[in-house]
Design goal:
The protein has 298 residues and is of the alpha/beta class. Helix content is 31%, strand content 19%.
């Protein structure tokens, strides 16, 4: 049987909410962006849909944590499901441990491949011979990985066979002006009247992130995740310290305007509002936060 020529399904799509659905109206003045709804993120690839046929509980727990961090959807299937039903599932990849398929794994695998699944098949199982690996690939499997293996390698194999590799998107080099602040993406810097604000890389990324969703509220946890990576620890005030220092830089350079606005319990909003006209009070955190600012390296 010739190797599978199934088409790749790893087509780049915007991450997060389905853009084919109409945006829901909100009753509040400003809409809040959350980790589940991140439309101003740099264009990224959509989460994959993965199914697993495996009963190694330890391996599944570690792998599940890795897939959750990638925001990939995954499910563990029962080997008692028919190959026809499994083949019809809307997946991007199926990972199979042949050891869970009973005494006739090759017959099961052949039936699955003959059913014509639209996704990729990766065998992740114990020790094997060259003959067995070649046989599986000739049946229609797309890759073979021998256990024990690192979950990171399995993730890389999935991305490779699905064609889901992450590629950097071209950055816009057109400057964006907000009030008196000119954001220059090509220089990773912001300017007021031609003078650099001398922003750190992370300060620039914060302004760039919020300015891309001008006048909308960004959730604190989402900002932290986008700029620092890990999830924000409960009661962590390091983001407030960071925003306080950045706000002071903006105010010194452009004192007639306020740019970063705090919405308590929600997050932050970036817009140019003349001092004294908006109803948003200045969020001055005081020296108490400055004393702890060393805990957050910009």
């Amino acid at each position: 049987m010739e190797a599978s020529t199934l088409p790749h399904r790893g087509v780049p799509r915007p991450i997060g909410r389905d853009r084919s659905r109409p945006r829901e109206r909100t009753s509040t003045l400003h809409r809040s962006f959350t980790a589940e709804d991140d439309p101003v993120a740099p264009p990224q690839l959509a989460p994959l849909q993965i199914a697993l046929l495996d009963n190694d509980s330890g391996f599944l727990v570690v792998l599940a944590k890795r897939l959750e961090r990638l925001e990939w959807s995954h499910r563990v299937l029962a080997p008692t499901l028919s190959t026809k039903k499994i083949a019809s599932m809307p997946l991007d990849a199926l990972v199979i441990d042949l050891a869970v398929l009973g005494p006739r794994p090759w017959r099961w695998l052949e039936r699955l491949c003959l059913a014509g699944p639209k996704y990729r098949i990766i065998i992740c199982t114990g020790s094997s011979t060259v003959t067995e690996r070649v046989r599986a690939l000739q049946m229609g499997a797309d890759d073979w990985l021998t256990k024990p293996c690192h979950p990171e390698e399995l993730v890389a194999r999935i991305e490779a066979v699905v064609g889901h590799r992450r590629r950097p998107e071209p950055r816009s080099i057109e400057p964006v002006t907000v009030g008196e602040v000119e954001i220059r993406h090509d220089q990773y810097q912001a300017f007021v009247a031609g003078r650099s604000l001398r922003l750190t890389r992370r300060e620039f990324e914060f302004i760039e992130l919020l300015a891309g969703a001008y006048n909308e509220i960004f959730e604190r946890e989402l900002i932290y995740k986008r700029l620092w990576g890990p999830a924000m620890v409960r009661n962590d005030r390091s983001l407030d310290v960071f925003v306080h220092k950045l706000r002071r830089k903006l105010e010194r350079a452009s004192p007639r305007w306020r740019y970063i606005h705090t919405h308590w319990g929600c997050g932050f909003r970036f817009s140019a509002e003349p001092v004294g006209r908006s109803g948003v009070a200045r969020d001055d955190l005081g020296s108490a936060f400055e004393e702890s600012s060393s805990s957050l390296a910009a």
